[in-house]
Amino acid sequence: MSTVHDIAALLPDPAELRVHLRALAVLDSTIGDDPEFRQYTFHPDWAPETEAARMDNGSGDEFSVLFTPAGVLVLGFDHESEMSPYGTEEEEVWPGLVDDVPDGLRPLLDDPAFHDESMGVFPITVCLWRETGDTVWRAGPAIEFPAGNEYPDGSDSLFHLLTDRSPETVRAHFEDYCERPVPLDAVRHVLAGHPVTPEITTALAPPAL
User: Fold this and answer.
1) Which residues contact 90 (CB under 8 A, 6 or more apart)?
2) Model confidence pTM above 0.70
3) Which pLDDT value is given to residue 1?
4) Which of 61, 127, 191, 194 is 20–30 Å from 142 (CA)?
């Protein structure tokens, strides 16, 4: 079984994660030709002293990574997960999922952007965090995952570009999503956090396309 606890062990430190998420957003906006279909975005002014990286695959799965002075909070939702609140009788968050979120990060859980106000539901199947000064990522220690499902919370697929951050994997993702070749050297350049030059932009989005 693969769960959020396995993902927590594979995520990099917050600074590296932030650089990687910004790079994914840059690649998505440069390679893709339609803003409506972008999956990865980065919002440096999400809220006072808060930056947000978001992923929305357009099929009902999404995650948000919130960077604050108190630490980093990660929220994910896999619409096919048995842990989805839409599939529970009371439409409540799965027991143990957010109970241990520290006080400094807890107010982020109330952001309307992460709630389905029309249904009165908080769509979430994954939650993990890392307080400033901590050395590891953490998730609810008392979560009882549904039995008989290899990927009960959907974290394995949601965060595959965060746990495998290799240029090859990232390129494969964008080639599959955009259905065209993407140059590996240009992907490496952006993932390294280097400035996006006109040459890199042209390599990632050739005018002929």
Assistant:
1) none
2) yes
3) 84
4) 61
Which amino acid appears at position 143 of this protein? I
d(CA 146, CA 185): 42
Interstrand relation of 126-131 and 71-77 (parallel, antiparallel or unpaired): antiparallel
Among 81, 77, 56, 71, smallest CA distance to 102 is for 71
- Residue type at 22 in one-letter notation: R
Q: How many CA atoms lie within 13 A of 52 on its CB side?
A: 16
Q: Please state the separation of Cα 195 from the chain's center in Å.
A: 23
Q: Output the six-digit token pair for 193.
A: 């956090």
DSSP secondary structure letters along the chain: ---HHHHHHH---HHHHHHHHHHHHHHHHHH-S-GGG--EEEEEEEETTEEEEEEE-SSS-EEEEEEETTEEEEEEE-TT-TT-GGGSTT--PPTTSSTT--TTTGGGGG-GGGSBTTTTB---SEEEEEETT-SS-EE-TT--PPTT-SSTTSHHHHTHHHH---HHHHHHHHHHHHTS---HHHHHHHHTT----HHHHHHHS-TT-
For 59, residues 6+ apart whose C-beta sits below 8 A from its C-beta are: 79
Query: Which pLDDT tens digit goes with each residue over 122-145?
Result: 999 999 999 999 999 999 999 999
**28 φ/ψ angles, rounded to the nearest 5 degrees:** -65, -45
The 10 Å Cβ neighbour count of residue 49 is: 10
